[in-house]
Amino acid sequence: MTATGEDFARRAGDDFVQLGATRDGLDPYLDQARERGMRAVLVETPAYLRWRRMLGRRPFDLQVAVERPQDEAAVTAALAGAGVAPRLVLTGFERYVYAGFAVARAVGSAPWPAVGEAFRPPDKREQREALRRAGAAVAQPRFAVLTPDGPPDDLGYPQVVKPSDGGGGLGVVLVDDPEQRSYAADLIRGMRNYGGGEFGSVLAEEYVKGPELSVQGVAHGGRPHLLSVCEKLTTLEEVPDAPGLSGFREVGHLARHGDSADEGLRELTSRCLDAVGYREGPFHVDVIQGEAGPVFVEMGFRLSGGGLVGLVERATGDSWAQAVFAVHLDGRPPALSPVRERAVGQIAAVSRQELDAGAELAAQGHDVEVQRAAPLPDTEPLSAADREVLASDLARHTGSVGRVVVAGDNCAHVQSLLRPIVSPRLRG
């Protein structure tokens, strides 16, 4: 039997529910729930909960296994069955962001209705269409939705082909001609999203060359409050089992205070939130800095992964997760620290040599921290069924042996220290 919002309201408690585990080893929402004395509940697939225990991640107060966390009704029923009375429901992983907001609405908990009574998070295709419908003066690449027998379009090459509802770079491919595009689209259609299931659709968009940026913030009353601006270091890598195709992987980030965002980036962010009707909660917006200004790529309605939560706090002095809890539970805007002349960058190291290079920078007197990751557990104890469910996670969220974190007066200085460490892996 599925519980209704009224059922939950009658036994309202002080439970925090996180739908989907973070993949970077950081649990900022868990920390905030503990600070407020809330019971912290994690909902995930049984396979990922087993993998999470193998990784040695901190346990939540209650962990609820759901075979399909992307299914709002399944999650709502599981929470009711476990006696969970949510006061706040937030998403920890991109795959489940769509269900996360639907669950909050179904059980009548924050962030609903302040997020927008009719808000549902749009996927990448829907974001582009919302911007176009709103007539917002936001530059974005020309794009098309690909179908197996769809008509040709007039997009130029090179193009980026990607699923409309993926995450973490899963299935994002650079192509140079129609043959490669068809090959990439078929490849994506044959893949499975995190936790299993097909992708919603496949998009192609014209590739825009330029520095990649993202802004991290919290919306309150429909107004964006920017915590930070990040520059990305990315690389092209061969797509497994697809010779000739290259995909993207983020190698590192450089973060600075959100007050350093220029007017064009601020205006783009505000127009994006308006176009999709997002009024309250965490967000990040990815752009490419083109010759004529920022070009929209996509936006997310959660905290960023890849260790960015920790990076943002080191660069700004502000806790992104704390700001989110304050907005949702206290109804107050983020209390952000004054701008500081400081930048902090990090790279995800894939070899001992890269970690050693970071240690050498520290020995030279630079402000450097080398974070060594615990060895990855042997996947042999996982069943074949678990490995199938976790296939995308194992492909996109393993391989790092640690992080090198560098602080300095500005992004140019920090990048001059980090870039040589990973230069063999960088494109451009």
Automatic annotation (TrEMBL):
The keyword Magnesium does not apply. It comes from the Bacteria. Residues 128-329 form the ATP-grasp domain. Keywords: ATP-binding, Ligase, Nucleotide-binding. Gene3D superfamilies: ATP-grasp fold, B domain. InterPro entries: ATP-dep_AA_Ligase, ATP-grasp, ATP-grasp_PylC-type. This is ATP-grasp domain-containing protein. It comes from Streptantibioticus parmotrematis.
